[in-house]
């Protein structure tokens, strides 16, 4: 299936009618719908999908650096590259590998331009899975095929669609330390569940692997489970910053919340031949039970 700009996309569907759409541009999940056809990810109404820069929203992959030397855009070149489908993905062995789910594997290898900017050879395999219960799982595997070690940062930059940011609470990060990007990356300790009354841009460090995003107006909870990703980035630009962003409509900040499973604070280092795996699953519960009822403390 092609999008409006002729860029190939893959659509996964489950028998219950849920779907996930992944664009070859950036291997970005551009849509995730539940079995009623309702969109669960935010995408900007002003989004322009024009290579090499993709639309705002969905779940872009941030890799391998903060600054992209090839363009002013931050958070790595992987999100603006054309990936390809692996028609012969490796066999599924474990539950972690999406056994029993529909999935697609996308691959990225650096081009000559990428190597000028970030001179390390890698192979990146992203597996996107859709489960029978509608949950989406993203599994990234990065292999060092270089002669020397290299280090990288990583994030699943998930733009969740919410009814109204003022009605949203994040549970599971209470007591975590965070770096506040709005305060020169100063370190603080969270005291409570997170609610939103102004711009938030934080990196929660070495945080629990299960967190919940409760949308009280929609009576919906996103449950996020991560593995191999120590940090969680929480970001909402609020009204002022939103007005300054050309690809977001005024007021659209109310309908979005970025919650990223990430390895940001301490880069991942891979020796030659080594492979790293980072996984994030997002499932939806159509209720806003508090965290203890959602088994947040219980790792899978
Ligand atoms: C967040 C960062 O993760 O992403 C913010 O913490 C940043 O500082 C934002 O502005 C940008 O998102 P995008 O999709 O434009 O890269």
From TrEMBL:
It catalyses: alpha-D-glucose 6-phosphate = beta-D-glucose 6-phosphate. GO terms for cellular component: cytoplasm. Substrate binds at residues 56, 74, 79. Its EC number is 5.1.3.15. InterPro entries: Aldose_1/G6P_1-epimerase, G6P_1-epimerase, Gal_mutarotase_sf_dom, GH-type_carb-bd. The keyword Cell wall biogenesis/degradation does not apply. One of its GO terms (molecular function) is glucose-6-phosphate 1-epimerase activity. GO terms for biological process: carbohydrate metabolic process. SUPFAM superfamilies: Galactose mutarotase-like. Pfam families: Aldose_epim. It is an enzyme of class 5 (isomerase). Keywords: Isomerase. Belongs to the glucose-6-phosphate 1-epimerase family. This is glucose-6-phosphate 1-epimerase.
């Amino acid at each position: 299936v092609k999008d409006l700009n002729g860029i190939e996309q893959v659509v996964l569907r489950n028998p219950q009618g849920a779907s996930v759409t992944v664009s070859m541009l950036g291997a970005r999940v551009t849509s995730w719908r539940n079995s009623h056809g309702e969109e669960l990810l935010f995408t900007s109404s002003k989004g322009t999908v024009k290579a090499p820069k993709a639309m705002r929203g969905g779940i872009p992959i941030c890799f391998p650096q903060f600054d992209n030397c090839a363009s002013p855009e931050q958070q790595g070149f992987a999100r603006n590259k054309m990936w390809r489908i692996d028609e012969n993905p490796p066999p599924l062995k474990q539950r972690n590998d999406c056994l029993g789910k529909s999935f697609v594997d996308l691959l990225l290898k650096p081009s000559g331009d990428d190597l000028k900017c970030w001179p390390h050879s890698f192979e990146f395999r992203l597996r996107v899975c859709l489960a029978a219960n509608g949950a989406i799982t993203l599994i990234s595997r990065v292999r060092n095929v270089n002669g020397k070690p290299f280090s990288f940062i990583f994030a699943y930059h998930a733009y969740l669609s919410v009814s109204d940011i003022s009605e949203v609470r994040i549970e599971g990060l209470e007591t975590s330390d965070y770096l506040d990007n709005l305060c020169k990356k100063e370190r603080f300790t969270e005291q409570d569940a997170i609610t939103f009354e102004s711009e938030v841009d934080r990196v929660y460090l070495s945080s629990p692997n299960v967190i919940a995003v409760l949308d009280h107006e929609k009576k919906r909870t996103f449950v996020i489970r991560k593995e191999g990703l120590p940090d969680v980035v929480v970001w909402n630009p609020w009204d002022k910053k939103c007005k300054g962003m050309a690809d977001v409509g005024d007021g659209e900040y109310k309908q979005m919340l970025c919650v990223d499973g990430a390895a940001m604070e301490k880069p991942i280092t891979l020796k030659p031949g080594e492979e790293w795996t980072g996984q994030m699953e997002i499932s939806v519960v159509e209720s806003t039970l508090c965290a203890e009822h959602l088994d947040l403390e219980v790792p899978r």
